[in-house]
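Chain X:
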Amino acid sequence: MLFDRPLVPAVLIQRYKRFLFDAVLEDGSAITGSCPNTGSMRGLTTPGSRIWLSEHDSTTRKYRHMLEMVEVGGTVVGINTGLPNRLAEEAIRAGQVGDLHLYSMLQREQKYGRNSRIDMLLTDPERGRAYVEVKNVHFSRASGLAEFPDSPTARGAKHLEELGDMVEAGHRGIMIYLIQRDDCATFRICDDLDPLYAQAFLRAMRRGVEAFAVKCRVSPQQIAPDGLIPMDEPACADL
């Protein structure tokens, strides 16, 4: 995925209210912009961090600039939670996620489960249905290891339960963890920050849900899926 326009470098002053940030552009201008990530962004909001912004000219937008990437420890990390579905679809179509590219039809945002919408519904006359949920990952606190979630997510646990329901109904349930950074060689479920999600993940796996971790190449010019990385089993599997 190439960005439509070159990203603008800046320095982060602060991120606040979950959806706003202040920064200083290279010409010294102080700006306020929107943050397309309402999560905790743990480890990615340090004042003084180098960041990259997209620019938007629409008169309907309150803020011209939107936060897209943060540099941490020499690694550029994508933070826009509006991109993972698009990137996961690119990975599927490129044959990077198991056999999912063999399904003949892909539909986005379809209703299913308990008043939910699945990110992608794959269908095929021979293979049936595959329900695909995508989670954005950018958290890493140990070298080479990506983790999800970075804070408790009851909604995420609900999605795992619903995927398990789809499997028991005779379909496939797929969870894709889309990692918007390229310095990680393995992935794990973060059971110490959200033990309930880790337990829901294990229940889902035992019910037949499949999980894939997709790493991306990330730069201010583009974000591109770069294949699968191994997934470590949560420590709570031993409990």
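Chain Y:
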Amino acid sequence: MAKLVIVRHGQSQANRDNIFTGWTDVPLTEKGIEQGKMVGEELAKMGIQFDDAHTSYMSRAIKTMNIILDRVDQLYIPVHKTWRLNERHYGALSGLNKAKVKEEVGAEQLHRWRRGYSELPPKLKHRQHERRYDRLGVKMPYSESLAMTQKRLLPYWQDQIAPRLLDGKNQLIVAHGSSLRALIKYLDQIPDDQIDKVEVPNGKPIMYEFDPALNIVKKTFITMDGEENGNS
């Protein structure tokens, strides 16, 4: 059976400070670095050999990926970077403190922006530009809903990850809370009105095991030492 392990990057400074980030680059905290090490050490204990690794264009995910691969002694495997695995773009909310936004718009509206499927955060007035995306011909969004994030993620899943799993090759994805929620929604066939209940904590790996037809056989929430394990 082919295995897929998905991991949200370790804690970033924005996570620590309760700030919306989206496509903005922010560094990992010391805790975030340690989370990456712990994930790698746990995967090393499990003896999983990956054939490929996939991550976003954001440094917090790339660095977490490198830490994990170092700890499992698999830095040599191919690493594929794609903007399609980026965090969702939070538009005009980017850079704002979540608690202050909650004070301004209320808990219910904030929850819809953060956890809803089709709710679109306030848009930027002007499109941002960065060389990393301009060189690809990718236009940075003014804002993204989770539905929009899933739409731009799925072609990469279908073209680059699913075929490798069908070939029996184990895959590792290190990405972001929203992009992984979008993938989980697709894999687990979660209804639109239920996805707001799904959380993907920093540095908490999830492993899917697939049969040769890419049906999910088992889903495991991989735990660190001292944590309780959960399977479904």
